[in-house]
Write a structure and sequence with these properties.
The chain has one domain: 3-Layer(aba) Sandwich (Rossmann fold). It is about 45% helix and about 10% strand. It is built from 18 helices and 10 strands. The strands form 2 sheets. Strands 1, 2, 5, 6, 7, 8, 9 and 10 form an 8-stranded mixed sheet that branches. Strands 3-4 form a two-stranded antiparallel sheet. Strand 3 and strand 4 form a beta hairpin. Helix 2 packs across helix 3, helix 10 crosses helix 12 and helix 11 crosses helix 12. InterPro entries: His_Pase_clade-2 (IPR000560), His_PPase_superfam (IPR029033), Histidine_acid_phosphatase (IPR050645).
Length: about 475
């Protein structure tokens, strides 16, 4: 009994993880410059392996970092939320990752019906976990310029400013010989005029994919692309993409990171206010969102890794932690006893899938009190549609109603606040109209009954009369 109680209550006075939010990049894929991009078998293996790592960290009963009260064998969908943009690389990566997070459960997933028969789940208990589709960054892995997938007008304009900057012009001229040197290896995709710093990422990406998957028999010129050349191309791609994703003097350029920050804040707050009903949130997204968040959260000064493109299967996590005594089926501790810890793993570039903690917002402490995390994140986070529309300067689509509402000084959509000129809302007027119509119908029915000499009788009496007269029909 005591052992059963201990397993159920999970009392702990040491550090406890109350919940977490994970943002993950896809695995190895085909090149962006030859769309549509698709997840490779290697990429499938990579994300599945990283899903298994998160199982060992957050799900497994034996883990010291297991999320409090989370189901360890058969997923409980109310505890887990997974999302991805509408993108085949990212969605398939999420699906492969989930197979590692919650592998087939075997007999544990079988069900016994009321009549005593047992239903064995297909594929050895393969666990079906839905993936929600986010409204931004759709098709990002088929877009050579990730900012275009955000649909944020001001962010696109801000990123375009980089192409007119002194920094861009400096690299555009100084790197020309380097890009021309790889022409034989990429001339099937890029012509001479395109071999410049302006296409830094897609050139490097094409060569990187080719050097992973293609033999020199299919492209002999690959043999002439040295490791040093690839390193230089990668450094230039890092500079190019970081400056398109973040600018310290123009916050809107980092819109992807700002939206992610708002999603993290909302989800973690929901975990707290719901006493841990929601335990693990997972989102798959593009590398540009990583770079945007790195800049907004003040991470680049802590490590140069935060100015570079995260590798395949990279991930970052925000953990809610406490040292207060808590129980899996009890109330959460006070927010004053809860902190947030940020961790990052640079995917396939790392020697393992282990997460490394880093201090956020230019601080020195790995763990940040919840209230401080909230106040620091709110400085740049985008948490609702109206805020996004205002920041992006969009006035069409979903932002059209926000524009109309903000112009009238109200956040309520115009359709919901319209009236008939008498101070009665449209909704209330509709109810009144329905009641008047019903009264008219009832009045007409009474008149017909009176003039026709008809009367109302009980259902049973009516049925009996019909039966007696032999008049009942089907």
């Amino acid at each position: 009994m005591l052992l059963a109680l201990a397993a159920t209550i999970q009392l702990s006075s040491a550090e406890t993880i109350l919940g977490a939010y994970v943002f993950h990049r896809h695995g190895d894929r085909t090149a962006k410059s030859t769309p549509p991009s698709s997840l490779t078998d290697l990429g499938y293996v990579e994300v599945n392996g990283h899903g298994s790592y998160y199982n060992s960290r957050y799900i497994a009963n034996s883990s010291a970092a297991r999320i409090l009260g989370i189901e360890s064998d058969v997923v409980k969908l109310s505890q887990l939320a997974v999302s991805s943009p509408s993108d085949n690389v990212l969605q398939n990566s999420a699906a492969g990752w989930l197979q590692g997070l919650y592998p087939p459960a075997g007999y544990a997933s079988n069900q016994t019906l009321r009549n005593g028969s047992k239903v064995e789940s297909p594929l050895n208990g393969f666990q079906l976990i839905p993936i929600s589709i986010t409204s931004t960054n759709g098709g990002s892995e088929n877009s050579q310029w990730l900012q275009g997938a955000t649909n944020c007008q001001n962010a696109e304009s801000s990123s375009n400013d980089f192409f007119n900057s002194d920094l861009f012009n400096s690299y555009q001229s100084s790197s020309l010989d380097l890009y021309r040197s790889v022409s034989p290896a990429v001339n099937g995709t890029f012509n001479e005029s395109q071999l410049t710093f302006k296409n830094a990422y897609t050139i490097w990406d094409l060569l990187n994919v080719a050097l992973i998957h293609n033999s020199t028999d299919s492209n002999p010129a690959l043999a002439d692309v040295s490791t040093d050349t690839m390193h230089q191309l990668f450094l230039l791609a890092n500079i190019h993409e970081y400056n398109l994703a973040y600018n310290s003097t123009d916050a809107v350029r980092a819109i992807s990171g700002a939206v992610l920050a708002g999603q993290v804040l909302t989800a973690l707050n929901s975990t707290i206010t719901g006493n841990g009903k929601s335990k693990l949130n997972v989102q798959f997204g593009a590398y540009g969102t990583f770079l945007s968040y790195f800049g907004l959260a003040g991470l680049p000064p802590t490590n140069a890794i935060f100015t570079g493109i995260p590798d395949y299967a990279s991930s970052m996590a925000w953990e809610l932690v406490t040292n207060a005594t808590v129980s899996a089926n009890g109330d959460f501790p006070s927010t004053s006893d809860i902190s947030v810890r940020f961790l990052f793993n640079n995917g396939t570039s790392s020697s393992s899938a282990d997460l490394t903690p880093y201090a956020l917002f230019g601080g020195s402490s790995i763990e940040i009190p919840w209230d401080d995390f909230v106040s620091q994140t709110q400085k740049f986070a985008v948490t609702d549609q109206q805020q996004w529309c205002s920041l992006c300067g969009n006035t069409d689509g979903a932002c059209a109603s926000n524009t109309t509402s903000s112009g009238s000084g109200s956040s309520t959509p115009a359709a919901a606040s319209s009236s008939n000129g008498s101070g009665i809302s449209t909704a209330v007027a509709g109810v009144i109209g329905a009641m008047v119509t019903l009264g008219v119908i009832l009045g007409l029915e009474a008149l017909i009954l009176l003039l026709g000499g008809l009367r109302l009788v009980k259902k049973g009496a009516s049925a009996a009369a019909l039966s007696t007269n032999g008049a009942a029909e089907k």
